[in-house]
Amino acid sequence: MMPTTWYPVIDYSSCTECGTCIADCPHGVYDTTKAPTPVVKNPEACIDHCHGCGDRCLAGAITYVGDDTGWTPPNYTEEPSKPGYSCDGADCGGRKVLVEYLYLDLQSCDRCIGTDSVLEDVLRTLTPVLKLAGYEVEYSKVQMESAEIAKQYRFLSSPTIRVNGQDICQSVAENSCGCCSDISGTDVDCRVFEYEGGRYEVPPKEMIAEAILKAVFGQSRAAACCDAYELPENLEAFYEGKHAKAGCSCGGSCC
Ligand code: SF4
Ligand code: SF4
Prior knowledge:
Elements: E1 7-10, H1 20-24, H2 52-56, E2 62-65, E3 95-103, H3 110-132, E4 135-143, H4 147-152, E5 160-163, E6 166-167, E7 174-176, H5 178-184, E8 189-191, E9 193-195, E10 198-200, H6 205-217, H7 233-246
Parallel strand pairs: 3-4
Antiparallel strand pairs: 1-2, 3-5, 5-6, 7-8, 9-10
Bound molecules: iron/sulfur cluster (2 copies).
The site of one iron/sulfur cluster has 11 residues, from helix 2.
């Protein structure tokens, strides 16, 4: 049943008062005069089923009244992260850059494996530079191993790189992926990265580096996405095919 009420609730014991939720909500739900402390002033303006501010809260301090979707606040500190990508306890002034890598398969998918490798190379180079500038980089790598996890992350296409919650690609472009088609036994499309007029199955280093630096130092901030989310049919077919191949009866929810 659809909830009749939906609005964010702040856990002030976790909130770091970064002000991101206030700045990024395009619907005036938060009281801007109280910024950076998040105060919900217009709960009725909140968009039903939007997790925009919650997805961007690095402290995982936002939940929603009426939320029956199974969504939980991202717990960024518990996601597996690579040693050396954080500022190792140095005083970073509380400024964080969250880089998320969401993928389908790192065992046999060439573009997931290739993108993973390029992203790690870029982070190895940029992390010390950002640290010098006072930013802590948090790297979270999450396998979209089931349809449930994909929905939780509002996953649109594999692989996905997000910087501070924002996809580095403006839109979804895909072509046929032989590896993921093999995994699922069905035709599956995966992401191609469009950059400077070219299309790449593995993004160039320049594209990732530019996206990270723009997210950190760029002037414009993208608004939180409040669009309704549905698992793309292409991914649904992948999960159904994968679980059918594995002989699992979960219906795509566990594998
Ligand atoms: S984004 Fe999270 S940590 Fe930042 S002000 Fe909002 S609730 Fe607090
Ligand atoms: S970003 Fe979305 S969920 Fe958060 S307060 Fe605004 S409308 Fe509501």
